[in-house]
Amino acid sequence: MSDNCLFCKIAAGQIPSNKVYEDDAVIAFHDINPVAKVHFLIVPKHHVRSLLETTADDAAMLGKLLALAPKLAREQGLTEGFRTMINTGEQGGQSVFHLHLHVFGGGGKAETMMAQLIQ
Ligand code: 5GP
Ligand code: ZN
Predict the structure, then answer these.
(1) pTM for the full model?
(2) Coil, strand, or helix at residue 104?
(3) What percent of the chain has pLDDT above 70?
């Protein structure tokens, strides 16, 4: 756990979240500021700052995040499609520096949702 990391604290249960899924290695919870009807984040519990800090050793973890996306999206009612996104680094629009995969959709066009997320 990294000191003063918001998503480490959420993963440890020290800060509450509206949980979608949890296992030993991963937690998923609704975004506090959703850009679509459904918007949740899939987060590895182990602290990794961003996609830039991952190596080949993280391939299984990264695969797990992505593989969970359609399963959890369906469970949240996104049966017709959704958008996934990983913001990486300050120049990539990342604001919380603990790796996370955004999953969002349902109501609103993807382009509109994108505009909100990249401003
Ligand atoms: P980023 O901009 O780093 O890709 O995404 C960070 C996301 O975390 C944002 O969409 C923001 O709304 C969300 N977020 C920030 N603080 C909290 C929080 O305390 N709880 C939850 N559930 N989401 C948060
Ligand atoms: Zn962290």
Answers:
(1) 0.93
(2) strand
(3) 90
